[in-house]
Amino acid sequence: MKKYIIWAVLFAVGFLACYPVLFLTAGSLMGQTELRELLGPVLSGSGGYVRFPLMSLYPTLRNYVGVLMDSPEFFVMFWNSVKTVAGILAGQLLVSVPAAWGFARYDFPCKSALFTLYILLMMMPFQVTMLSGYLVLDKLQLLDTLWAVILPGVFSTFPVFLIYRFFVGIPQAIIESARIDGAGELQIFMSFGLRLGAPGILSAMVLGFLEYWNLIEQPLTYIKDKSLWPLSLYLPNIGLEEAGTAFAASLLTLVPAMLVFLGGQDYLEQGIMAAAVKE
Amino acid sequence: MYNRKKRNTFRGLLFVLPSMAGVMVFILVPYLDVVRRSFTGAVSKRFTGFQNYSTVLTNPAFHLACKNTARFAAVCIPILIVLSLAIAVFLHRQGRWGHRLKSAYLVPMAIPAASVVLIWRLVFDNHGLLNGLLSWLHAGTVNWMNTGAAFWVLVFSYIWKNLGYDVILWIAGLGTIPESIYEAARVDGAGEWDLFFRITLPNLFPALYTITVLSFLNSFKVFREAYLVAGNYPDDSMYLLQHLYNNWFRDLSMDKMAAGAVLMTVVVSLLVLLLQKAWGRDVE
């Protein structure tokens, strides 16, 4: 009996965790009349309270048509988000994967001090580097460009740390035997490191995607030109009068993140775990 | 042999170099510049000692933001940690449904703050869903966003977002405890609670450090929801350091920003190091 109660509570919590997805789906399929009626109390301050059924009673795709056909700014922002995320992740692949390999497989002077610095940097909240980031981007004349968000993201130290945890786990014997077979260092990295460390790299990419798709502080600070804003800053500006549009746009923003989540869930979990367990 | 070692040192550095150069250019060097600025006047550009620091430390808005941020961390981190531990202990080894629930708890990680904003507005409005539910229960309604209740909305939002993440971390920790210890204790007649307090908890201690630190760091990210819903000046109860820094930034108060950034660095580093000391475990 006690066990059933626990399961019931856990399922309720699980439902609460996923409810926003249902909520947005339902809302995005509602027509204007239905939304007006349900959201009336918030929109016009008329009496009563908002009601919200689990599913639309008269489903329609009109909101999606509206967002996809009639609001060019949605596409602009969508592409801004895509470009930013793609730029950051591509840069991280080029920069942090080799760095993680260097930290994991070689000895060099000041290595542990440098790595500690990386860990500390990864722990700092954005507010700490907000001003310094601004100053350097200003000097490089990158403010008000997408690069202002992409470049600092590329040099985030978190993926280095995460991928390092996976590289360290590769048995030294494999590397040594490759060396004895005459493989060069670069060749070892390319063929053994990348292959055996692939789960770590994918984890970093999945976690990175979810983080950068959701970026608020950086574009808010470094980009004034609204035509360069990502979706994450654009959505809250849609007023409730256009609730249908807001619902459809919110759901469309959620979809890419959800796909990455569903496709990369194992890597996401491995990535989260890598920080917690010491091998 | 010696030569090869030297060559490998050089190669190791080569792998790290691009990243290191970027970190220098984009983070470290400008940060040192900020440290320098924290000791100089905003207009005069002359050395002013700890002037900026005392301006910041005596600023009433800074006191409010510090108090709220500390209160926020002090309230939600223990709740999150205990709740996620309880769930993890139960879900650990629960087969298919346990696995599915775990995935469900992770879903909020994939939901962008911007998409949540719309829901927040409709749920926590004076005429919103939650007040509708409360009035249906005859429990009396609450002005969620403009009173002290806003703080609890923020706490809820943080726990909603981070629960799955912490559950996964705990499950990882639980996975490191060998089953054989439990079996041996069971043979000796230990009950379930004995097992939990004598074996599970002590063995999870090392994981507690990482989980606390990560939960603390993630707590800074509630700014996203808070900002998107309530803007630059939300209810006083949820005016966080992040709001304050953001507002200083918009006012171009470089001197306060610089001193504030240095102060925050010191506090975060100290907290991380203190926790590490307290739990006797190295960061890595």
UniProtKB/TrEMBL annotation, chain A:
InterPro entries: MetI-like, MetI-like_sf
Main location (coarse class): membrane
Any one Gene Ontology cellular component term annotated for this protein: plasma membrane
Alphabetical UniProt keywords: Cell membrane, Membrane, Sugar transport, Transmembrane, Transmembrane helix, Transport
Cellular localisation: Cell membrane
Membrane topology: Multi-pass membrane protein
Transmembrane as UniProt keyword: yes
Residues spanning the membrane: 6-26, 78-101, 113-134, 146-167, 188-210, 243-263
PROSITE patterns per record: ABC_TM1, PROKAR_LIPOPROTEIN
Pfam families according to UniProt: BPD_transp_1
Biological-process GO terms, alphabetical: transmembrane transport
Keyword Transport belongs to the record: yes
Ranges for domain ABC transmembrane type-1: 78-264
Family in the record: Belongs to the binding-protein-dependent transport system permease family.
Protein name: Multiple sugar transport system permease protein
Automatic annotation (TrEMBL), chain B:
Keywords linked to the UniProt accession: Cell membrane, Membrane, Transmembrane, Transmembrane helix, Transport
Membrane topology (UniProt): Multi-pass membrane protein
Chief localisation class: membrane
Superkingdom of the source species: Bacteria
Residues annotated as transmembrane: 12-32, 72-91, 103-123, 143-160, 195-217, 257-275
One GO cellular component term noted in the UniProt record for this chain: plasma membrane
Family the UniProt entry places it in: Belongs to the binding-protein-dependent transport system permease family.
InterPro entries in the cross-refs: MetI-like, MetI-like_sf, UgpAE/MalFG_permease
Name by which UniProt lists this protein: Carbohydrate ABC transporter membrane protein 1, CUT1 family (TC 3.A.1.1.-)
Domain ABC transmembrane type-1: 66-275
GO biological process, one term: transmembrane transport
Residue runs in coiled coils: none
Organism, as annotated: Hespellia stercorisuis DSM 15480
Compartments, record wording: Cell membrane
